[in-house]
Fold this sequence. Notes:
By secondary structure, the protein is of the alpha/beta class. Helix content is 48%, strand content 8%. It has two domains: 2-103, 3-Layer(aba) Sandwich (Glutaredoxin); 114-235. The protein has helices spanning 6-11, 32-43, 63-71, 95-103, 114-129, 132-137, 147-156, 158-171, 187-201, 208-218, 221-233, and strands at residues 2-5, 21-25, 49-52, 79-82, 90-93.
Amino acid sequence: MTKATIHELAFATDIDHTVAMKLYIGNKNYSSWSMRPWVLMRQLGIDFEEVMIRFDGFEPDSAFKIATRALHPAATVPILEDEGLEDEGVVIADTLAITEYLAERHDGIWPQDHFDRAEARVLCATMHAGFSALRACCPMNIEADLPKVGARLLADHPALVAELDLLEDLLAPYLDGEGFLFGGYSAADAFYAPVMTPLKTYHLPMSSRLATYQSRVLAAEATKTWIADALEERDFLPFEEPYRDGSKSNK
């Protein structure tokens, strides 16, 4: 896997053009949607070139929106660009669409058993469409440690508590084994890996079985690499952290 920034793509002459697929992502500390296809592809050994488009705001005239809109009208990340099959290439926005695209070309994205595949798709679709309170209240912030913020959010937002209960109920049937949700690593684990980080950041309550899975999925090689990269960014974005003003009282 190679890395580049959007600026380097525009001006450099040494980008590795032998890699057919490019995955455009946002800041690793904050972008949970970018994390999902990245850890999936990395964990399964699918080769791609990483291209970082830094968050500088989400207004229409922000550099981030201008750069992503030039790639796809949705103007969001992640975006997968595959130049290997079609003369004009294909550009796919949306994490679930990227996952299904990869599944048509690579083994291991979904579990082998057809019942497990259906259940894994339900888990991914539920994460993809739901958990709005968890996303709004506890956005991914890998470098932070915010137990007091988490306690305040739990007290003030009943919907957050309800979604944590839902998370437990959804994953409970798949937490008995020693492996991942369906034995081997799959898209289901990639979709739930990012939500394991706010559970840690905000010290949110979880069962011992979910905590065991959290430790396992965060220890997966791809997730460890993503987290290490996120910690190296040191790029504090105040608009991504409305709950924190830099004072110790938030910790």
